[in-house]
Amino acid sequence: MILTQCAACTAPLGLALGKKCGRCSTRYCGPRCQEQHWKEGGHDKLCKKIKKAGGAEQYYADEKHAEAVTVAAEACAEDTQGQTCYIYTQALHWKAKEGLVRGCACRGTASFAHASCLAEQAKILVVEAEETNLDYKVKDARWARWHTCGMCKQGYHGVVRCALGWACWKTYLGLPETHRLRSMAMNLLGNGLHYAKHYEDALSVREAELSTRRRLGHSEDTILAVQNNLASSYEILGHMDEALRMKLDVYSGLLNLHGKENEKTLIAANNYSSTLLGLQRFEAVKSLLRRTIPMTRRVLGESHESTLKLRWTYAEALYKDDDATLDDLREVVTTLEDTARSTHRVFGDSHPLTWGVEDELRQPRAALDARETPPSSASA
């Protein structure tokens, strides 16, 4: 997370409360905690080191980035054994001494890279776009390299996404608060933490991002996107009512801004339906998705990630409903089998969406087999 807590007692400070160390900007809730941290918390030994690194926020981001890169390389070690980085063409990074990662849908040798090489590649592309004053469409495409593979065009996931999130944040956190790249980096960090299942930390970053963007007067479109991410954090931490309210606000807001067939609106419908599903409001999910899935297929395509997720959610709503019929169960299995084939083809075997659909398919398939097996065959 970014620094929104007292370094001594971890009390929440938000983005404005408390005081800072005059030398290194480490944050405290008050003079008592600052004095205690100096005398008993080891800050007397770290203060100069933190200042030399660029201040508390930079020092902390550098430390967390190094940890995240190590975790990502260790998690990918089995897949990357004996391979080399497609960018640097070596197995071990010459400077960072880090191992390789694999976090997209590329096949073959293009699957493997150092997280630091991916980050450096993204950084260079963004610098070129900013310095040559390219249009926003090109700038956005360059920025996407922080979270999306430039070859297979699929997003990085899991601990690799988290490592890149920290790399991005430590690169841009020193910019003025009003600079768009700093806000975008905070967004990327929150998403990376979420992908790596650091949900409490993701919540803290997303709350800070929403507060910052509101204070700076960012557009309604942007605020809705940040609220959607924040609602996902609420949901996964069990704050279901708050998550549902916020996701409905986001969906309604995007409907008003862009209409029902806009990509952002369709993605918001998917997010809202997943929360309804978590609350077991099956009829509401089915009603919404029967209207939304045909539009999503037409607008985004059969193989788009949102289309596949919507079909998965719809199948879950059918299967988990106690009133599900035999025909419903057959539709569930057919839908999930077709979705699983698509996720394998588009995202590869190692993507979380592929695992999730395959895992979801087991129970309804077994239930369908049991219900379609004649009693005489079962007894025999």
Instruction: Determine the CATH superfamily of the largest domain.
Output: Tetratricopeptide repeat domain
Overall CATH architecture of the largest domain: Alpha Horseshoe
What fraction strand? Answer: under 5%
CATH class of the largest domain: Mainly Alpha
How many individual β-strands? 2
CATH topology term of the largest domain: Serine Threonine Protein Phosphatase 5, Tetratricopeptide repeat
Task: List the uncertain runs.
Answer: none
- Number of structural domains: 3
Estimated helix fraction: 55-70%
Structural class per helix/strand content? mainly alpha
Explain this structure.
With 380 residues, this protein is mainly α. It has three domains: 1-52, no CATH class; 56-197, no CATH class; 219-374, Tetratricopeptide repeat domain (Serine Threonine Protein Phosphatase 5, Tetratricopeptide repeat, Alpha Horseshoe), CATH 1.25.40.10. Helices cover 66% and strands 1% of the residues. It has 17 helices and two strands. A two-stranded antiparallel ribbon has the order 1-2. The longest helix is centred in the last third of the chain and has 22 residues, at 326-347. It is globular, with a radius of gyration of 23 Å.
